[in-house]
Amino acid sequence: MGEAVIEANGLTKRYDRAIAVEGLDLTIERGEVFGLLGPNGAGKTTTILLLLGLTEPTAGTVRVLGFDPLRDPLAVKRRVGYLPDAVGFYDTMTARENLSYTARLGGIARAEAAMRIDDALQRVRLADVAERRVATFSRGMRQRLGIADLLVKACEVAILDEPTSGLDPQSTQELLDLIGKLSREGMTIVLSSHLLGMVQTVCTRVALFHRGKVGLVGRVSDLAAKVLGGAFVVEIEADGCDIVAALDGLDGVTRATVAGSGLVRIDATRDVRGDVARRVVASGGDLKRLSMDRSSLDEVYVNYFEQVAHAA
Amino acid sequence: MRREGSPFTGLSAVAMKEAADHMTSARMHLVMLLVILTAIGSIYAAIGQIKSTVGQDAFLFLHLFTTARQPLPSFVAFLGFLLPLIGIALGFDAVNGEYSRRTMSRILSQPIYRDALLAGKFLGGLLVIGICLVTLWLLVTGLGILTLGLPPTSEEILRGIAFLAASLAYAGVWLAVSMLFSTLFRSPSTSALAALTLWLLFTIFWGMLAPLVAGAIAPVDPFNPITVVHQAEWQQALARISPNTLYGEATTALLDPSTRSLGLIFLNQLQGALMGAPLPFEASALLIWPQLAGLIAAMVVVYTIAYVAFQRQEIRA
């Protein structure tokens, strides 16, 4: 950790009068899984295109792996892989032909490319359909083929734009597992999404986008602490006592609200389960259930945008 | 700001892939079937005509290309009509097709410049057209040898190769035009229609429009004979805006060695000329030099416009 692979300073992109990205500052470190999070049209894809040098910023600078994507786009694109939203392939060519075309574009020697392609198809479980035309592939298979494309390229940084949009839950899980594996092998991964639950499970850090600006950057739990006040949410179910009264004055509990009959929701700044259980039992209640949810990104998201809307 | 790295990185990979795609595409097979059928038809007609009228002629082989027998036009007339169609078929979805297949951003995120993508597509198309033209030419020559029983002379081969070069430049103009439309319009069907409209305008209507416009610009004064010359010059200049005119003139001079001039000629300029005597190849080449240069220039200019439009395009989606 520590070495910055992507640095953006004051990055701004305007289309005519519409502002797509404004004053973006971002640092992504090696080995991270970084999530760009925000509603549609918040500037995530534009940011990605700016990072790759596929579009020119109106103002500001970017460094990717120490290179300027505007001045030296080939060096950047050689080391950074990009999986676009709803990736497309040449339908009349087979999976293998598609991969070998991008390998040739990347200047990988033929023998080396053939090895990498076999390996990559194996890893994304498409080896048995390698000779089939891509026209017959499902959305999930295309997305996996896109990942295979990145594997063949052997890139240091992979940028995935909405990698799971339009996938069924099983394909989504499969893709997330793949992403997790790549990350453990040392690939830095940047992914954009509006699906928060998904980002939460794989990302080490996230940036919340709102109307072309980055609202918040940090770990999911830190963001939760910042936005929601308490980073921990404990749910408790007990009979025979007034839970809220029993918890009164307990250190770390910021709020306890009755959520249903015998069900209480506790917002806390630390893991308070042990203390809560002792208190409830001490006050004579029958403890039925006690569970902790790390406060979910969904709530952070909703709360954050509510706050932003209020401020505006 | 200077960019690092060569704009030609990946050029050959794109060109070879495009060429292979064209070679196997159903679209190309259909167009080539059409061309080959018309070629065989017109050549057979020409052979019949030649056999019935043959006298002493040094350039029998060249007549294969230019002789027409009713109701079929000659082989070169067919090519003048159909070559644009090949160019359009190969180029009309070159750029917007990548968008609609959603492959554009993935390809451009590979370590290549946009230059390589566009140039590769253009060169790939030209390569395929070149291969088709050479095949056609060999086919015609072979038919000629079989039916006439004569091998072509070296001069005829030389003229044939020059004719191939002119045809390639002509088809290249239309390839560039259709690629330009494919960058300007986001929908392949719109760009195909636009290219076909321009093709019809130049092959069918331009011949009617040029005299009308020339008449409006330089009206003929019945008492001043030089105004007739002016009008004719205007008409010719206007007609030569159309690549079809340039190609027609170039093939006429190349395949009919007795062609001495492609424009107006006065009687005093013909003094001492042996009427009907063939020109040597170099003289014919000199005669069509402006036409050939014009075709190549048109190809380069149209390609450049497409290039600039493509470079300025936003790559979204």
TrEMBL record, chain A:
Family annotation (InterPro entries): AAA+_ATPase, ABC_transporter-like_ATP-bd, P-loop_NTPase
SUPFAM superfamilies: P-loop containing nucleoside triphosphate hydrolases
Transport as UniProt keyword: yes
An example molecular function term from Gene Ontology annotations: ATP hydrolysis activity
Pfam families, alphabetized: ABC_tran (PF00005)
Assigned keywords, A-Z: ATP-binding, Nucleotide-binding, Transport
The family this protein is said to belong to: Belongs to the ABC transporter superfamily.
Protein name: ABC transporter ATP-binding protein
Keyword Magnesium: no
Chain ranges of the ABC transporter domain: 6-236
UniProtKB/TrEMBL annotation, chain B:
CC terms in the record's Gene Ontology section: plasma membrane
TM annotation in the entry: 30-52, 72-95, 116-140, 160-181, 193-218, 288-310
GO molecular function: ABC-type transporter activity
Protein name, per record: ABC transporter permease
One Pfam short name: ABC2_membrane_2
Keyword hit for Transmembrane helix: yes
Record's keyword terms, sorted: Membrane, Transmembrane, Transmembrane helix
Organism domain of life: Bacteria
